[in-house]
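Histidine kinase/HSP90-like ATPase domain-containing protein
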Amino acid sequence: MSPRRLAQMRLAPGPSAPGRARRFLEDTCGRWTALDFVADAALVVSELVTNAVRHAGTEMRIALELRDGTLTVSVHDGGPGLPRVIPAAERRLGGRGLAIVVRLAEAWGVAVGDDGGKAVWCRLRPRAAAAVGAQWARWKGSQDAWSV
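Structure:
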């Protein structure tokens, strides 16, 4: 059993929040020597933070937990309402964020807080090291294109 690692960050809502969340994820996984998670987790954290900015518009807390070979990513915001996966036939502009999370995650869910907000979380497994290395290099090379 591997030791439990936990890191958290608070973010103000705004256009820079997804990029700041990705950098936090990248730095944290680097410190934890857990780069096998970065490719999927960067996409997941971007989608969850973007949803919180768009739909809640409140300060948010990003939490990362590494335990027993899985990475749990959660984004807590103070907004009311619960997220839902929008079926492909109903999507217009956008609406793919949670569908992406569902596809990449081993499990996901929503925990409603006593404060009226909620935490959307997902659990990820690492990708094969060879595939991650190639994706990581591409992602790092296109980091400017990811900035929001």
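The first helix runs from residue 17 to 31.
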